[in-house]
Design brief:
Layout (H helix, E strand, L loop, with lengths): L1 H19 L5 E9 L6 H11 L9 E7 L1 E5 L5 E4 L14 E5 L3 E8 L1
């Protein structure tokens, strides 16, 4: 259910930035979302469609780009992209890893009129 609060924040930011730039309509919100962020993209879009009714963001599309999980292996010193279900270094099989990318969640840009 945390997607509702997150979606409200997206809407608030989009409206504020659009108004600061004299826009009257938000057309697209470009979002970066890491595979380990814990956010369900379809829920965010569904909530956005409901809570944006009657705002300058009504009808806007959320363009959500998924970011892969990237790790650094502390045993073989290699950086690799991994599948979120197989948390091992693809080079040496170690689980002694540091997460480099995959927890991000941010608005990258807006398209407005």
């Amino acid at each position: 259910m945390h997607e509702l609060a997150i979606t409200q924040s997206i809407l608030d930011i989009a409206e504020q930035v659009a108004q600061e730039h004299g826009a009257t309509k938000v057309k697209t919100v470009h979002i970066k979302l890491g595979e380990y962020s814990g956010v369900v993209p379809q829920c965010v879009q569904d909530y956005f469609d409901v809570i944006s009714q009657g705002t300058i963001a009504q009808g806007a599309v959320l363009d959500i780009q998924r970011l892969p999980v990237v790790i650094h292996c502390l045993d073989c010193n290699q950086d690799s992209t991994i599948d979120r279900r197989h948390v091992r270094c693809p080079q040496c099989g170690s689980t002694h890893l540091k997460l480099i990318q995959g927890r991000e969640f941010y608005i990258e840009s807006l398209e407005v009129d």
